Amino acid sequence: MGLKQMGRKRKLENADLPLGLYTRPLRGVTRYFYRNVLGKDTYFPVEFKLADIKQSVIEFNETHRNSAEALKYRADKYNVRVHKVWHKIKQNLDEENEGKSQSTLNTFDNDCERFINFFANYYTKEITLEDVNEYLDEYHSGASINVRNRKIFFLRAVFSEFTDMSYMERNCANDKKLKKKSKKAKSKTPIRISKYALMMMADEAEPFLRTAIMLSLQTCHAVNEIVNLKYSDCHYFSSPKVYCVESGTYLEPNQGTPEELLVHGMMWISREKNQHSAASRVEIPITNEMMATIEASVQDLGEVFVKGTEPSCPYIVHRKKRYHKVNYSSDFEHPWQLTPRYLSKQFSKLRDDMGLYLDIEVRRDRPGFHEIRSIAIYLHDQQARDEENTMNRAAHSDLGMTQHYKEGHEKFKRVPPSTVTL
The sheet that has 29-35: what strands, in order across it? Predict the structure, then answer.
């Protein structure tokens, strides 16, 4: 019969010390330290009284060492701390996110970072709806209804992976109720930016912001597409052409062709939001106004525009910056590249600095950069009188969305003249 090896018997003077508490002479002073189950030693400060040290160790052992609660966790190999299995969960989530836009992936990574910071030391099977509520209050208490609902969907997706791998018995995020917009909020039309306010802002804006405003106005596209536009996305004719509506081709202009009808080439835009739809890829004619914007952008680099020559910075919207950390992303290809968030913030800052829409108390309700897309769609539709053409230009998949963007620009509905006689 083999003998079971036991730990060494304590010295007589240390017999009254609780489990895990030891003494050791260190630099001429007797120090008390606690040794955990993994063998790691933690020293108590010299000024602590022995009675207080003993009490703290006893309380710690009751919860974390050889207690019924600790044994419960050890008995269930799937009830582990979140950080122990997070790498598996994150890998599965990343595989599901393949093919999504970069902005969506960036948002997801930020959500994952917040999640692990909050839940890292939670036991997987002990997470409850109360913890979900605390997480949402911690990071998204002031968020809009749409944003808060998206974060609930994020938690549901994450916890479904835990459930699928047996680390949770049920997905507690499914119990969290999604908020619905009130009828008043649903019927509320966003506050649209006026043409004249945009003109004033373009006049006062720095070159990078003026370029972004004009490109968004001419293309009908949003900030995510505008910041990613490159000079290489522009494909030029050897000489200006004129578009023939009947044949859908470009012809040589006549001597009397108006300047505003001349086309210098094509700008190719791929929209991130609905990138898997055929409508997301659109070819926009480069008119005189767009050409002037592109040339001004090249001049801002201190260079001369030449067709077929790539400028030093590949991005049409760029900013020479002294401090790169102000607007920085690890995904940058060039130090003068801009993030969508930075561009939107600079637009809102200029709007407020010029005293525009300050009568609207809630700052986020004031028209932001995205409203340029709305007024651009409205103005192009007014000019072309062809809703389908405007829909294609904006890379929308259906007319309903185009009509939504057109709403709110006419304060008074125009009616034809009519006379009633008595």
Answer: 21-26, 29-35, 41-43
251: β partners:
242
Strands (E), 160-261: 234-244, 249-251
Residue 293: exposed, middle, or buried by beta-carbon count in 10 A (0-12, 13-18, 19+)? buried
Whether residue 127 contacts residue 174, with contact meaning beta carbons closer than 8 Å, is answered with: no
In the chain, the amino acid numbered 348 is S
Q: Which residues have C-beta within 8 Å of that of residue 377, sequence separation ≥ 6?
A: 220, 390, 393, 394, 402, 405, 406
Q: Are 340 and 272 in contact (CB under 8 A)?
A: no
User: Which amino acid type is present at position 274?
Assistant: N
Q: Please tell me the distance from the alpha carbon of residue 267 to that of residue 233, in angstroms, as a whole number.
A: 6
Contacts of 9 (CB under 8 A, 6+ apart): none
Q: Which of 319, 396, 405 is nearest to 367 (CA)?
A: 405
Per-residue tokens: 190 = 């966003």
Q: How do 21-26 and 234-244 pair as beta strands?
A: unpaired
**CA distance between the termini of the chain:** 122
Q: Are 123 and 73 in contact (CB under 8 A)?
A: yes
The gap from C-alpha 80 to its chain's centroid, in whole angstroms, comes to 30
Cβ pair 281, 268 in contact under 8 A:
yes
- The answer to whether 295 and 305 are in contact (CB under 8 A) is yes
The overall pTM is greater than 0.85:
no
Q: How far apart are CA 5 and CA 259, in angstroms?
A: 96
List, for residues 312-330, the tens digit of each pLDDT value: 999 999 998 755 555 656 6
Residue-wise DSSP of 383-394:
HH--HHHHHHHT
Residues 6 or more apart from 365 whose CB is under 8 A from it? 191
Burial tier of 269 (Cβ tally within 10 Å: 0-12, 13-18, 19+): buried
Percent over 90 (pLDDT), the chain: 38
